[in-house]
């Protein structure tokens, strides 16, 4: 099969990569559409030391596996957990210490014609959700993870820093639960996407942070964002770290202790709330699509996605 | 009056420091017993740029002020808030942006014969609570602050790192709400204090951290403690930062995001729960007393308190 493969040195379209096999526990999914995430770009810089087929956002159809799944249109959770350890038993499969992660840790991903996914990770896509919407399930679930971790009061004042893909999704999810959301970003045209949904949005150049937000979501992807976030969170407020870049910089803990701030690292979420939100058209996702490339143009698509300020680039497997 | 004064260069017992005056809002308290906190030692190294009379832990009796308070034995909350700003109105007086803090920010403290305290900060000490117990109200309230900030499940597995004054208080408070507490420290004799209360305690040399604790309280006062704490907290667990030293070092955020850990800065608590716990003899505090000095020997007492491993040193105003 065709697959976009990273060997640690070179990213290339392999025209004859071995097609994965279905097993009792793993379904084979024919990929219809896959999304490029900032994490994919980090992997090319050495993150996690990954080697293999990239990609962890996809929608496809089951072409081999249990009979009741055959032909079904699906998305799949990306953490492949053991299901039997104490971490899994407390419902934290996404943190299973022996997990593999699709396209990130020891498991081939979705930038290919086919991808193997544990059957228990699959979720059917409602008919009312298009492929172009369903492919956002994974990043939208990551936005919903905030609601698992933070108990937001109705009417909470929330600042979302960053108008990238994840920032715009987080902002809409928090707006939908009643928070008074302000999105702060650098791109007028991106801010317009959420402004059309009724959110307050402004350019960072027009923003004067005051320590008044009940919660701040840091989704800028830059180290400077964290400093801004700390300037905007109120005493005893909550700062949610969504930026992958957070893994690379350091933080003085002074304001954290003095203002008794709660700092929460936030990564993957569960898929069902995201699928429900897509089915009910509660979150605008298709305006985030910047471009769609055919799978064979995957390298070019990755270059496009890496340009500053580009929103979601998709790969279509025709 | 006599007062232990810090001018930014020298700590000395001033025999003729001006006695503060009571006003409509400020009561004058004759100090009976005051406690030396690690923060006092940090102030001598420049923390907060404080100049004035040190001390924020005390028990005393009101000698000037409103009639219904006269002669009453009291303790006093240390944050002197404005009471009228939006932060105060939401019950966060301890974070009032224009607050003064007794013996720490712009307000003279309790290492003196008398101290001025806002009337609304005063709390009567129950008769069943001795002076030697009451003087622990402030640090014990700081331990109770954890329960304001973290919703601990009954039966939660909690590790308290550090067997200093604050660590031993935090450990007992968390034990009392049903948590399965393990105290990890460096001093067998200090660990014995909480072991006698039924807590599990062990030497750090005998401890092999596993990422399994629902919550870890970092109260070591050393930068290395934070690294240990991160090794002991489970995915999606909570790490409470109680160490003042936390203000001086930096932290890589990598494990925080990957394991979705919640990091909570924790400082001052409310006095009533601490006073109730003292009245009900639920927390052993007097075993933490290392020495009691008369106020005129305050400089010597501070030197004693600064020795490594020393627990609580008190100043008595006879």
What's the quick description here?
2 copies of one chain form a homodimer. The first copy, chain A, has 318 residues and is of the alpha/beta class.
Summary tags:
homodimer, about 325 residues, Rossmann fold, 2 domains, 7-stranded mixed sheet, 6-stranded parallel sheet
Structure description:
Two copies of one chain form a homodimer. Chain A has 318 residues and is of the alpha/beta class. The first copy, chain A, folds into two domains: 3-136 and 285-316, Alpha-Beta Complex (Quinone Oxidoreductase, Chain A, domain 1), CATH 3.90.180.10; 142-265, Rossmann fold (3-Layer(aba) Sandwich). Chain A is 25% helix and 29% strand. In chain A, strands 3, 5, 6, 9, 10, 18 and 19 form a seven-stranded mixed β-sheet that branches. A six-stranded parallel β-sheet of chain A has the order 13-12-11-14-15-17, with helices on both faces. A three-stranded antiparallel β-sheet of chain A has the order 2-1-4, with no helix packed on it. In chain A, helix 4 packs across helix 5 (165-176) and helix 4 (137-149) packs across helix 9 (271-279). The interface between A and B is medium-sized, with 35 and 35 residues. Strand 16 of chain A pairs antiparallel with strand 17 (250-252) of chain B, so a sheet runs across the interface.
